[in-house]
Specification:
single chain, 247 residues, alpha/beta, 7-stranded mixed β-sheet, two-stranded antiparallel sheet, 9 helices, 23% strand
Length: 247
């Protein structure tokens, strides 16, 4: 029997920099609707559900035909919200899809999913993209990742890694925040000890590494474009009109 693979889009109304951004309009539709409609295009997902604790988002999602689940309001992270939905589902693999990326590439979702399907020893998978600019390299908001020769993460950091002391022509990679989990691993994730590396970097994925788990990392050309501020929405609107004028 084929594995059930569930895509979950965590969405909340509260946002420090852009309250209600999930329902902000892009080309006449809420950002969340764009995310949902592009996510259901991923060929390996059996189902896609929106997870929220807000009635406005719940009603909007129902309005555009999405499957949506109300979750607890006390979750500390989107991962915890995804885990609550997964705990009531029969899926063996769960994909955490960011709710603020209206131009999410269905192919990127498939690539991360395949990475986990092809690596039976890893409980978690994600994506990386080659860094091409010095600006991204120096930006602490662009998370970098280094991997071993087998495609498993060694470390994630806001710093530029590796430090190129020897002048080697080494590639640099940024982390794309799309996560795929085996369900049993995801359900125990929030209970794992939070280590000093996660606390220092403020990067939740380091919890897996600090507790001895492997993360499979797949290369992608997908450029993650999130909407965190009204200015981001203006930028994404221009890109959307230029790249997807018929969408």
């Amino acid at each position: 029997m084929p594995q059930r693979i569930l895509g979950v889009i965590p969405a909340r109304f509260a946002s420090t920099r852009f309250p209600g951004k999930a329902l902000a309009k892009l080309a006449g539709k809420p950002i969340l609707q764009h995310v949902y409609e592009r996510s259901v295009m991923a060929r390996y997902l059996t189902d896609v559900v929106i997870a929220t604790d807000d009635e406005q988002i719940y009603d909007a999602a129902r309005g555009f035909g999405a499957r949506v689940r109300m979750t607890r309001s006390d979750h500390l992270s989107g991962t915890d919200r995804v885990a609550e939905v997964a705990s009531a589902d029969t899926a063996s693999i769960v994909v955490n899809i960011q709710g603020d990326e209206p131009m999410i590439d269905p192919g990127a979702i498939d690539a991360a999913t395949l990475a986990l399907l092809d690596d039976e020893d890893s409980p978690m998978a994600t994506l990386k993209k080659r860094i091409d600019t010095a600006e991204e390299m120096a930006n602490s908001n662009v998370v970098k990742v280094v991997c071993d020769r087998y495609g498993h993460a060694i470390y994630f950091s806001r710093c530029t890694i590796p430090y190129n002391r020897g002048g080697v022509d080494a590639p640099y990679w940024k982390h794309i925040g799309l996560y795929v989990y085996r369900t049993d691993f995801l359900l125990g994730y929030s209970a794992m000890p939070v280590g000093p590396l996660e606390q220092a970097e403020r990067l939740e994925q380091l919890r897996a590494l600090e507790n001895g788990y492997r993360i499979r990392v797949m290369e992608t050309d997908y450029e993650s474009i999130g909407v965190d501020t009204p200015e981001d929405l203006e930028r994404v609107t221009k890109l959307y009109e230029a790249i997807l004028p018929e969408a």
